[in-house]
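Query protein
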Amino acid sequence: MRLFNAWEMGQDQTKQQIEKGLHLYQSNQTEKALQVWMRVLEKSADPAGRFRVLGCLITAHAEMGRYKDMLKFAVVQIDTARELEDPNYLTEGYLNLARSNEKLCEFQKTISYCKTCLNMQGTTVSLQLNGQDYEKALFFPCKAAELVNDYGAGWSLKYRAMSQYHMAVAYRKLGRLADAMDCCEESMKIALQHGDRPLQALCLLCFADIHLSRRDVQTAFPRYDSAMSIMTEIGNRLGQIQVLLGVAKCWMIQKELDKALESIEKAQELAEGLGNKLGLLKLHCLCERIYRTKGLQRELRDHVVKFHECVEEMELYCGMCGESIGEKNNQLQALPCSHFFHLKCLQTNGTRGCPNCRRLSVKPGYV
């Protein structure tokens, strides 16, 4: 009986210390929170408590851009999940391993861990598709911001910062540049307060993109440079590709096509190294415009072919009308089976099943 009581006391103490760390973290006392959680990890004998504190450490290091440390804790967490022998713990552990490897651009490992989750009995994983439906892209961060405003009095400001950032990206793509700037400024302010380097880099990239949309390349260039500096520091190679493509667009506006190609070549090297087909698709599109302007037909045809190869490989086309998706803003709809289509095609099709796999699709999902 005494052993049982001592075990319960250990669990209670572990829970209290984890909550203490969360309170410190939400109060922007990140280093103190990490110290509390590390003490729990060292002293707690409760596997479930250790699993939970490892989750806190994984999230904190992800938000700070310390992706190698994030992976280190994810590896320890999956070992703890195996000790617990619970499929839900294992699923969360493998997803954290996938997230950690994604941040480090180890995409083959990311896919492998995600497939492990999908193959685990009794688990459900939602998939997101990268199309271009800017109204939906704006809807979700706006709802997140509403939740923070209505219910998040005690929540970390980081939730508000991320929702504001995603709203800024959607507003920019919709052409509402003043709204985009306001949201991005608020997000950047919070990112600076929290020392959130990954979010600072994303905000700088968004600022640069906004100025690019205004064709103010002289203001865009230094922001792209600052974003590249942080993304190089934290190892965000996907972000570096976005920066280089933005810089290329600036050079194109200034009619400096050779300099634009230099930036695109650097982006292509990164994208090919990562297997980033979406980045390759975008740079082939830019090259098509450049070589068309230069009148170089052979190079033009080469990039047009490669562009369509990327579209085919990524299946970026509507499963009903066959038109490509992603070249312009379209209203899109995903079905529960994860196949996606133009909304207008679904509305005119008159079928309750997915034309691709013939599964029943009574309740549509969202892209």
Q: What stands out?
A: DSSP finds 16 helices and two strands in the chain. The two ends are 54 Å apart (CA to CA).
